[in-house]
Design goal:
By secondary structure, the chain is mainly alpha-helical. The chain has one domain. It is built from two helices and no strands. The chain is flat and about 30 Å long. The protein starts with a helix and ends with a helix. It comes from Segatella copri. This is FprA family A-type flavoprotein.
């Protein structure tokens, strides 16, 4: 989405964070698909932290 692209651009030019997992585009309601994406992102973040 446009918001994700803008955040990624800002990250690359200003923050230089290492991306972990796939970005999740959340709207007003959380669908089962979005919930699964959020859970996958959370697991990826936890794995990254535990690996360090």
């Amino acid at each position: 989405s446009k918001a994700v692209a803008k955040i990624q651009e800002w990250n690359e030019t200003k923050l230089h964070y290492e991306p972990v997992g796939e970005p999740v585009d959340m709207k007003q309601a959380i669908t089962p698909e979005v919930k699964a994406q959020c859970e996958a992102l959370g697991k990826a973040m936890a794995e990254k932290l535990l690996a360090e």
